[in-house]
Design a protein that fits this description.
By secondary structure, this protein is of the alpha/beta class. It is built from 16 helices and 8 strands.
């Protein structure tokens, strides 16, 4: 059991207060969230999307002035605690040498995101990640809205069990030597934004990211950024030292800049926006021609093959075809043909015939 401090709110903006100081992450690494540029632009963690292959590709085609933090896929702490399951789930934490070199060259930070419901497993997962990997931070997933996950008491379900949520943050911080942040939503069936932010602020995370939807809203209804404004007001009053980021329906750099000004966040996180535009993280809107789209698709397939070979199901790549094969004559026909491919070789042969 981890000790919870229930009434730090009136002291939260006073870092000299011993109550709040005792809750700081026992870390030898500085809190990079306080050092990255503002406004910061962040690529959201997404299952079967933000693996090392896609992150490497994004790093290659982005301007490091407009991309500051990347996240891994979601890694289960319950799986990491299992002697058999650990090998499988920690595939999500793989960072290729090529990606590592690009991260170092660009100065972009990389965060491992973890999820589950058992505080002791969060602590042991944090210890393992810090001892075996070289991430800049750990993030706790308290936002995934998938029904089966929520039904099991994990991710956004933790909004409904605030004491457990606080215990999880404290346990993770105890096991970590790097900053521990939280990504979450505004509520379950309805917004409880202000109360929920107070709960999370009470355990002093290194940073907070809020998706402007409830769990029930999934991604079907428009993000309600008015809730972000409420959350920022709570942060400003209780703990202005905690970096705070907004997430939801940010589909361009300009919109991210506008939202930063309008709602007072320290930056924005981009999720589905990357599927509309893989070249999102650039100062000017980039409109690639057909040739560049084909080249980037080929690059992605080659990076995927180099990293995973037969370790990952090739069909995972098919969700990406539509983000490259669009906005030119014959795109829909080519896309349909790509969906019939079964391996990287099929893709190479099809695109070779198409471009010849």
């Amino acid at each position: 059991m981890y000790v919870l401090l229930h009434a730090p709110f009136i002291f939260a903006n006073d870092l000299s207060n011993p109550i709040f100081a005792s809750m700081s992450t026992p870390t030898s690494a500085p809190n990079f969230w306080k050092e990255i540029p503002r406004p910061a632009f962040i690529l959201a963690p997404m299952e079967d999307v933000t693996d090392t292959a896609f992150r490497e590709l994004v790093l290659k085609i982005s301007n490091p002035k407009m991309l500051h933090v990347l996240f891994t896929e979601f890694t289960s702490v319950e799986g990491m605690a299992h002697p058999v399951g650990r090998k499988k789930v920690t595939e999500r934490l793989i960072v290729s040498q090529e990606e590592r070199e690009l991260l170092q060259k660009s100065g972009v930070k990389l965060v491992a995101q973890i999820w589950g419901k058992t505080p002791e497993h969060f602590k042991s997962a944090a210890e393992y990640i810090c001892s075996e990997y070289d991430f800049d931070g750990i993030d706790i997933n308290m936002g995934c809205p998938v029904k089966n996950v929520v039904k099991n008491g994990c991710c956004s379900a933790l909004i409904g069990t605030p004491e457990l949520a606080k215990e999880i943050v404290l346990a993770t911080k105890e096991g970590s030597s790097i900053p521990v942040s939280v990504k979450t939503r505004t509520g379950l069936k309805e917004h409880v934004t202000e109360k929920w932010m107070e709960t999370l602020i009470s355990v002093n995370p290194a940073a907070l990211t809020l998706h402007a939807r409830t769990q029930k809203m999934q991604s079907e209804k428009p993000a309600e950024w008015g809730e972000i404004a409420k959350a920022v007001a709570v942060r400003n009053h209780l703990a202005p030292h905690i970096p705070f980021y907004g997430n939801g329906d940010v589909f361009s750099v300009q919109k991210g800049l506008d939202y930063t000004q309008t709602y007072g966040v320290d930056g924005v996180m981009i999720g589905r926006g990357i599927f509309q535009d893989p070249w999102f993280f650039n100062e000017q809107v980039h409109t690639p021609d057909e040739s560049e789209r084909m080249k980037t698709l080929l690059d992605h397939v080659r990076i995927f093959e180099r990293n995973w070979n037969d370790q990952k199901n090739f069909n995972i790549l098919k969700r990406f075809f539509k983000i490259y094969v669009r906005d030119f004559n014959g795109a829909s026909t080519l896309r349909a043909q790509l969906m019939e491919t079964r391996n990287p070789g099929d893709v190479y042969r099809l695109l070779s015939a198409y471009t010849s």
